[in-house]
Amino acid sequence: MILNADTVCTESYFIRKGLLRTYFIKDGKEISEYFCGIDEWVNSPRSFIQRKKDIYFIDAIEKTEAYSLNVNDLVYLFDNFPIMERYSRLSMGSFFGHMMERITSIRFTTAKEKYDHFCQAYSHIYHRIPLGMVASYLGIAPETLSRIRKQR
Predict the structure, then answer these.
(1) Distance CA 112, CA 90 (A)
(2) pTM over 0.85
(3) I need a labelling partner for 148 at 20 to 30 A (CA). Which of 29, 52, 68, 75 fits?
(4) 90 — pLDDT class (breaks 50, 70, 90)
(5) In angstroms, rounded to a whole number, what is the distance separating the alpha carbons of residues 97 and 80?
């Protein structure tokens, strides 16, 4: 477990090896929000930026090695190394672009199209993510996901 819900996220993690998942719990069920693999950053964005408690958990799906960076150290880097601020803006732009695509996919596509988009967006790691987590990410029943995968 990297981050428990209802705590303030003060660290951002850069994944050196492994796979992490961000999720929340609704009605006793884990709902996967996004996944991060090698050479990606992960934190609870709202909590990390606003320094407020949040609903998200972050945990390792497989054995993971990651570097952590405290929010105060990140602010220091931004203040003293402009290239770091630029890198952060580009990373956040990429993240928000991904989230906008996810929202569009959830609202306007079929279950099969959602799965196809998922496989494209997570092409480097989707095969390592347990199917129950994939189904919760897509907002579909595991049985529906099984039928879609059989058709491929």
Answers:
(1) 30
(2) yes
(3) 29
(4) confident
(5) 27
Q: What is the DSSP string of 59-125?
A: EESS--EEEEEEHHHHHHHHHH-HHHHHHHHHHHHHHHHHHHHHHHHHHH--HHHHHHHHHHHTTTT
Q: Are 71 and 12 in contact (CB under 8 A)?
A: yes
CA distances from 90 to 37, 83, 87, 97 (A): 18, 11, 5, 10
Backbone phi, psi, residue 62, to 5°: -140, 175
3-state secondary structure of 18: coil
CB 56 within 8 A of CB 42: no
Tokens of 58: 């972050």
At 6, is the secondary structure helix, strand, or coil?
coil
> What are the tens digits of pLDDT across the range 137-151?
999 999 999 999 999
Q: Domains (ranges, CATH) in the chain?
A: 11-151 (2.60.120.10)
Segment holding 136, helix H or strand E: helix 131-138
CA-CA-CA-CA dihedral for 5, 8, 14, 20, to nearest 10: 0
